[in-house]
Amino acid sequence: MYIKDDICYAGELKENIKVTDVKPLRGRMLLITFSTGEQRLFDATTLQGPAFTPLLKDEVFTNPVLFHGVITWNNGEIDIAPETVYRDSYAYDREIAL
Predict the structure, then answer these.
(1) pTM for the full model?
(2) Where are the alpha helices (DSSP H) in 1-98?
(3) DSSP H helix total and E strand total for the chain
(4) pLDDT class for 16, splitting at 50, 70, 90?
(5) pLDDT, tens digit, for every residue of 60-69?
(6) With 0-12 CB in 10 A as exposed, 13-18 as middle and 19+ as buried, what is 71?
(7) Hey, how many other C-beta atoms are within 10 angstroms of the C-beta on 7?
(8) What is the rounded distance in angstroms from the CA atom of residue 20 to the CA atom of residue 35?
(9) What structural domains and CATH numbers belong to the chain?
(10) 10 Å Cβ neighbour count for 1?
(11) Mean pLDDT, residues 74-92
């Protein structure tokens, strides 16, 4: 457990984590590989607000670009911090998924 910005989170804080690979999946899910070597699933439908509205278009969502370990879309107009993606993602076990 850790506290950041007066919010208590389960798990452990991953400082300086980066995304090394991202693969869009059906249902607005992302399969993400982190600099720790972990693969995790992130539900992009949780991204709310007008800044994320373009992600509702398949041609935007399915074309993420990594920029210095950060997932970006739409020529860098949309991004999400790797720490946020890690915190809000789920462990992915490739053996179970197959």
Answers:
(1) 0.80
(2) 58-61, 82-87, 94-97
(3) 3, 9
(4) confident
(5) 999 999 999 9
(6) buried
(7) 8
(8) 6
(9) 16-97 (3.30.2020.10)
(10) 8
(11) 94
